[in-house]
């Protein structure tokens, strides 16, 4: 009965009539459960705070004596600023109120007042939220503050919550089995919901949040793991018989030793190929960590066992580069490799299509040309997508469907913090190469101001004179009236004048695909020594001879983008450099510049970026695929997320979970969510 009560309309709550129920509906609060799960976004703490312990930007309560007559400055009829001095212990504090001139009557010289507001430590000011004459009787009170709209005020919302808890707290369902509460010393859900709305102490509030955050992350992970499991059951029967001995022979022919991280992820992928369900794996690794070699081993494993493999990349020049390197690696073995891009035409194209259809081609490398209707595979077993974020979901699906039992390996060089990988790619398995091959020289990174330009040009000259090449990156293509930033066309013209004995190439998004290919090929073959470009070069070809990356207006780029750009150099035997030109003024921009100079570890940068930007911004709000949690914050609650994920995975593999009464609420939750039927995750 309790679940049904929770689904009752808000009109059953005491004091909520038709009009108020409609107002709550506008806030997407339609049921009793919605209201009880509408948590405060902050709290007013009324305990008196010693200013020596106060934190900048914190909401605090102070008690003091009025030391000056209030001053009011009017800016317009309705806009004003009131200030007064308050002696708080040994500190003289300025209290400020905006558009509330009537407070002047409550600030009499020499009288005691209690003020709650936002503390600005740098200015020594407190912006008034609430003002009381004398001392307040209950200084330990913690008051919830809710996001409200329309005619629903914070006071009204508190009253609705009080009434809801009095009527329905006994009906709150606790989905977690009792042994979970014992294991992690969690309070009951009933107590947690009561305390999150009306805390009796700071400690109880902390424990309530801890319980509810675990609930959110555990239920999300349970749904995710069950979805993954149901998909595996639905895709049973894709087992490949692969010769591990042949794979070992191939690895032994490589001219270098695999890193421990490469060995680990290779084993994970080969184990997947052996399993009777389809692989759906994300391979993430920093720039230069050796993902391509791991993909080559996986492609060799299927091709040497009589199946076919496909590698889809975003650009033709990248496809050509991969074809060259794979042909060199597979030379001692009789595996046919073909390149299929839109440039391959006529009889040559027909011949390749025929070979693919007949199964003579073991590995096909190409761009989106691979997903065209006329491309038919004989027995496609493995699909590898490089730089997976460059392809739409539909494009990836079309390639996968070319093979009825195809395993899928997505690769990305954008390091995703472990925290987000667990969430955003919860329906995939994630393999991470978190180690660079030994002997690679670290790219030296420097942050300079624009007044250093003459020295930078001299340094570029020095590198070019030793036979090296340089990338110059700008944020814009053409001059902009709105933005005072460098643009590619101007910089290209300036550098052509300065470096007259060298060839300067220009690359930007307005060029046609063929023009971009030509510019990139010229740079790769050292026909141009400097390449001025916008960020279209972020994911591009391997130019081992390029040793210098100069980025204009670096503060205009995100950390992950700067790291990707830096990864274009340092691919050969030469010491490489990255120079960030920036007049970064904001604290966040300066932090990004400093972080870039301090570390070349993409995962470390990604974690730092996550703290700066938050999970939604990290992926871009629209395509992030991240759920919006009520309380959980992936930046701070990542340890809880990892524990919840393990708990959910362990529980689903236990037979007892599917039979015993103690888990019945969780089974009902999964059944209602639809994931057991393989429906899409919301």
For the terminal residues, how far apart are their CA atoms?
27 Å
Enumerate how many helices there are, as a single number. 22
Q: Which structural class matches the secondary elements?
A: alpha/beta
Question: Which geometry do the CA atoms define?
Answer: globular
Major sheet: 7 strands, parallel
Mean pLDDT across residues: 84
Low-confidence stretches: 618-625
Compute the number of strand runs.
Answer: 21
Short description:
By secondary structure, the chain is an alpha/beta fold.
Describe the protein.
There is one protein chain. By secondary structure, the chain is α/β, with parallel strands linked by helices. Helix content is 39%, strand content 18%. The model is unreliable at 618-625 (pLDDT under 50). The strands form 4 sheets. It has a 7-stranded parallel sheet with strand order 11-12-10-13-14-9-15, sandwiched between helices. The longest helix is centred in the N-terminal third of the chain and has 33 residues, at 202-234. A hairpin with a 2-residue loop joins strand 4 (80-88) and strand 5 (91-98). It contains 22 helices and 21 strands.
């Amino acid at each position: 009965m309790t679940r049904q009560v929770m689904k009752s309309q808000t009109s059953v709550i005491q004091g909520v009539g038709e009009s108020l129920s409609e107002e709550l509906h506008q806030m997407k609060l339609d049921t009793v459960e919605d209201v009880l799960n509408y948590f405060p976004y902050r709290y007013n703490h009324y305990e008196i705070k010693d200013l020596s312990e106060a934190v900048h930007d914190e909401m605090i309560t102070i008690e003091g004596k009025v030391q000056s007559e209030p001053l009011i400055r009017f800016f317009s009829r309705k806009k004003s600023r009131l200030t007064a001095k308050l002696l708080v212990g040994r500190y003289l504090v300025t209290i400020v109120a905006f558009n509330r001139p009537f407070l002047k009557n409550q600030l009499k010289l020499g009288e005691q007042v209690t003020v709650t507001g936002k503390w600005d430590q740098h200015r020594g000011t407190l912006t008034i939220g609430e003002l009381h004459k004398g001392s307040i009787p209950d200084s330990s009170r913690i008051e919830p503050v809710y996001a409200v709209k329309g005619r629903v005020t914070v006071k009204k919302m508190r009253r609705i919550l009080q009434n809801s808890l009095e009527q329905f707290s006994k009906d709150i369902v606790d989905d977690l089995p009792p042994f979970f509460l014992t294991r992690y010393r969690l309070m009951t859900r009933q107590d947690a919901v009561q305390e999150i709305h009306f805390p009796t102490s700071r400690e109880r509030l902390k424990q309530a949040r801890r319980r509810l955050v675990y609930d959110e992350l555990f239920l999300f992970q349970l749904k995710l793991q069950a979805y993954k499991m149901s998909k595996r059951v639905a895709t049973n029967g894709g087992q490949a018989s692969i010769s591990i001995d042949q794979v070992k022979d191939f690895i032994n022919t490589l001219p270098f030793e695999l890193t421990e991280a490469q060995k680990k992820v290779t084993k994970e992928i080969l184990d997947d190929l052996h399993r009777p369900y389809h692989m759906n794996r994300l391979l993430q690794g920093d720039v230069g960590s050796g993902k391509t070699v791991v993909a080559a081993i996986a492609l060799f494993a299927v091709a040497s066992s009589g199946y076919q493999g496909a590698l889809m990349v975003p650009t033709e020049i990248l496809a050509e580069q991969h074809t060259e390197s794979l042909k060199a690696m597979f030379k001692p073995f009789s595996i046919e490799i073909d390149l299929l891009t839109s440039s391959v035409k006529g009889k040559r194209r027909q011949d390749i299509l025929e070979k693919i259809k007949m199964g003579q081609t073991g590995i096909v490398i190409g761009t989106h040309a691979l997903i065209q209707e006329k491309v038919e595979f004989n027995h496609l077993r493995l699909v590898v997508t490089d730089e997976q974020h460059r392809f739409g979901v539909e494009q990836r699906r079309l390639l996968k469907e070319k093979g009825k039992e195809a395993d899928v390996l997505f690769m990305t060089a954008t390091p995703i913090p472990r925290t987000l990988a667990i969430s955003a790619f919860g329906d995939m398995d994630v393999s991470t190469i978190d180690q660079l091959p030994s002997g690679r020289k670290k790219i030296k990174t420097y942050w300079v101001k624009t007044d250093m330009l003459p020295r930078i040009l001299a340094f570029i000259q020095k590198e070019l004179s030793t036979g090296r090449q340089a990338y110059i990156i700008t944020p814009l293509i053409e001059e902009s009236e709105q933005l005072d930033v460098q643009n590619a066309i101007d910089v290209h013209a300036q550098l052509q004048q300065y470096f007259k004995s060298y060839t300067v190439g220009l690359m930007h998004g307005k060029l046609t695909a063929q023009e971009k290919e030509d510019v990139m090929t010229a740079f790769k073959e050292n026909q141009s020594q400097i390449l001025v470009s916008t960020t279209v070069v972020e994911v591009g070809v391997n130019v081992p001879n390029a040793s210098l990356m100069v980025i204009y207006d670096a503060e205009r780029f995100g950390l992950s983008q700067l790291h990707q750009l830096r990864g274009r150099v340092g691919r050969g035997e030469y010491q490489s450099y990255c120079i960030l030109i920036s007049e970064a003024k904001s604290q966040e921009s300066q932090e990004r510049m400093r972080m870039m100079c301090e570390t070349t570890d993409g995962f470390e940068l990604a974690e730092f970026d996550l703290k700066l930007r938050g999970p939604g911004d990290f992926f871009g709000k629209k395509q992030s695929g991240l759920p919006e949690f009520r309380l959980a914050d992936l930046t701070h609650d990542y340890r809880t997320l990892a524990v919840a994920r393990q708990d959910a995975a362990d529980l689903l593999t236990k037979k007892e979970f599917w039979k015993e009464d103690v888990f019945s609420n969780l089974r009902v939750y999964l059944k209602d969510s639809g994931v057991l039927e393989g429906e899409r995750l919301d």
